[in-house]
Amino acid sequence: QVQLVESGGGLVQPGGSLRLTCTASGFVFSSYSITWIRQAPGKGLEWVASIDTKGTYRDYAASVKGRFTIPRDNAKALSVLQMDNLRPEDTGVYYCENAWNQSPTASTTNARGQGTQVTVSS
Questions:
Q1: What's the pLDDT tens digit per position in 12-67?
Q2: How many C-beta atoms lie closer than 10 Å to residue 33's C-beta?
Q3: pLDDT band, residue 108 (cuts 50/70/90)
Q4: Contact (Cβ atoms closer than 8 angstroms) between residue 59 and residue 49
Q5: How far is the C-alpha of 109 from the C-alpha of 32, rounded, in Å?
Q6: Measured CA angle at 25 (ends 20, 27), to 5 deg
């Protein structure tokens, strides 16, 4: 069974950091790009960052570039979204997906986790 599980969300003050982890199972993790997406309250899905299969190429949304990084560990079948200098507008539910997908939609044939809540507030 293909499964992605996000963890590491929580409440953090502006300027703080969080480290989200996406743990994969049921497929050959090293054969898939990984994308992180998010959904702010009352808004649609937004692409955050993607990384290719070997971790050679990464791309970030303009809103997070310079603050977020997206390493991966193929041996452990996990992806990380390291979020620094967080802002209130980063609040939302964060999901990982086993594809390079810069135009996420609610309906997808890719595997997507259940999400983890990130709240940035003082």
A1: 999 999 999 999 999 999 999 999 999 999 999 999 999 999 999 999 999 999 99
A2: 20
A3: confident
A4: yes
A5: 14
A6: 125
Q: Which of 54, 93, 51, 91 is nearest to 69 (CA)?
A: 51
The whole-angstrom separation of Cα 97 and Cα 52 is 12
Q: Which two tokens stand for residue 97?
A: 């997906």
What confidence tens digit (pLDDT) does each residue in 79-97 have?
Answer: 999 999 999 999 999 999 9
Side chain identity at residue 80, one-letter code: V
Tell me the CA distances in angstroms from 28 to 61, 102, 114, one per residue in order: 26, 21, 20
Closest CA to 30 of 55, 6, 8: 55
H-helix or E-strand spanning residue 26: none
Task: Show the tokens assigned to 113.
Answer: 């986790």
